[in-house]
Amino acid sequence: MRGRKPSTIVNGSSPVTVVPSPPSYFPKDAKAEWRKIAPILVLERKTLTEADMGTLESYCLSTSTMRQAQRIINVDGLVTAEGKRHPAFGIMNAAQTTQRLCAAELGLTPVSRSRPAVRSEENDDDNPFGI
After folding, report:
1. pTM
2. By three-state DSSP, how is residue 85 classified?
3. Which of 4, 6, 39, 74 is the most exposed place for a label (fewest CB within 10 A)?
């Protein structure tokens, strides 16, 4: 990610306070990922807002797509009979990129969780000097 980063994260004006059900159109893997991640964002971290719902959907769908593509590669192999890379590899790679970008936006990666702006809200009581 290039460019200037915000020094603090401003809480959203429309926080999600109840863990929503996964969208009905989601495939099985996407629903499973939603059920794993949504409670963390809503109940534990209290960071999910209505504006973030699309990013959460994209994250879950890309995770599902990546897993589906990997299952196809597991059956067919990475290389086709023509000696070319399996088309599912490109799909998997694109899904992983989307997944990684969405995960960072949602604070689901170790790097995004370790940013000082994210940690400052959690450690306000432990740090009276705001450092």
Report:
1. 0.78
2. strand
3. 4
Cα(20)–Cα(35) distance, integer angstroms: 9
Tokens of 36: 């794993």
Q: How crowded is the C-beta side of 9, counted as CA atoms within 13 Å?
A: 21
The H or E element spanning position 33 is helix 28-39
Measured at the alpha carbon of residue 110, what is the angle toward residues 71 and 56, in degrees to the nearest 5? Answer: 60
Distance, CA of 72 to CA of 104 (rounded, Å): 27
Counting Cβ atoms within 10 Å, is residue 24 exposed (0-12), middle (13-18) or buried (19+)?
exposed
Tokens standing for residue 33:
């990922």
Residue with tokens 């994260």: 9
- Phi/psi for 100 (5° steps) reads -65, -45
Q: How far is CA 30 from CA 21, 33, 35, 51, 57, in A?
A: 12, 5, 9, 19, 8
